[in-house]
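Blinded run. Sample ID left blank on purpose so nobody reads anything into the name before looking at the predicted structure. Input follows.
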Amino acid sequence: MKILRYGLLGLGAFLLFLLLQAPASLITDRIGAHLPGFTVQTVAGTATEGVMQGLQWRGARIEKLSWGWRPLALATGRLGFRLDADDPDFKLTGQAAIGWDRQWRFQNLAGRAPLEKLYALAGQPKLPLQGMVELKLRELRLNAARRPTTADGVVHLLNVQITLGQPLTLGDFVIQATPAVPDGIQGKVQDRDGPLALEGNFSLLPDGRYRFSGQAAVRDAGNQPLRQAMNLLGPPDDHGRWPLNFSGILAW
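Blinded prediction complete.
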């Protein structure tokens, strides 16, 4: 039995040594096998401490992405890494871990990116909305299908514009997301005194079903271009507000 224990310990140490010495290309090759169209210009380092440069996927480009292994995550049955994406218009830092069930858990995510780049990375059709997204999430979890199952944190939408024949400025907005019971995401949306007054509540289930209810109004009565755009939703109520009620299933 003592020989067996020492043998298993030696085998484990040998496998750990191989992992620590494996090239970083091992990671990029595995990613490319699961994400068609994923390419990188250069990759350096090891599988546990590496750097990709010139990453492209779904038409979006990120100049540099580095990662570092977090061995303590193994105690929770997950393989964990520290992530740091650096690009002129895309910043993201945080911790990521994947379990044997292929479910992802992200913690302390902080970043900034343009909406159009996020559309591309998410594989969603481009919308007539432009602006910047700043996020600070304590936690975000994705299931094996890479759909969000829970989130906890704040997302800021800055300098949002919509193009409906002409660019219209909507302003800044904040989204507060919290875990729903028994699962899913719920939250609130609130404007920050911009041209469009907006407030509402939303919910998102792991299967993609969503619901949003709230109300919107044009803060400046003299802003005729924005008022005309809002009239596409129908006439406002007696208080000059448009009720908003949307539901459906997100395309993933």
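Unblinding after everyone has recorded impressions. The radius of gyration is 22 Å.
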